[in-house]
Amino acid sequence: MQLHLIRHPRPAVEPGICYGQTDLGLAESPAAVAERLRPLLPESFALHASPLARARLLAESLGRPRLDERLKEIHFGDWEGRSFTDIGSAIDDWAADPLGFRPPGGESPREMATRVLQWLAEHGLTPRTPDAAGIRASPPLPDALVVVAHGGPLRAIAGHLLGMPPERWIGLDFGCGQVTRIDVEDWGTVLRWFNR
């Protein structure tokens, strides 16, 4: 199965603003981004997306997406809409525990990854038992799956499927309006290309 992971187009937000689940407008046309990406996608595919407008609008330009709350970006709670400068030294607490830290009223990266990986498992991508390698599909996988979401959820999906430890997922820097392809086979996964 071909898995295509697409990060939403560039949002209309000032640099340095923490926005997580804040529903923002876009700084570029989702239709234009869809046209640019379409040649990189297979002719037919199952389409899933975050319901946040910046992902949903691009997905709707590509087809008829199934929206799922679990594909939303991390919830930054009281930090949403604030500048990182205003948040101040609390950022140091996050840096000290990048997976477990939870902003006031929000969720931790680990909690976000848990909901995203629940979605992934429900759609047929689950680790095999320890005595077998690769990926087990149940129910059968579509030939191609396109997911339009956000940096955090896409890192969790790709990092998990590629067998990376969660501490390394932050290194998967998904570009806005770009697509990454991972092929999921019975014997495992292959990163075909990143950020096209």
From TrEMBL:
GO CC aspect terms: cytoplasm
PANTHER family with a match to the protein in the record: BROAD-SPECIFICITY PHOSPHATASE YOR283W-RELATED, HISTIDINE PHOSPHATASE FAMILY PROTEIN-RELATED
Membrane-spanning segments: none
Protein name: Phosphoglycerate mutase
An MF annotation (GO) of this entry: phosphatase activity
A Pfam family reported for this protein in Swiss-Prot or TrEMBL: His_Phos_1
InterPro entries tied to this protein: His_Pase_superF_clade-1, His_PPase_superfam, PGM_Phosphatase
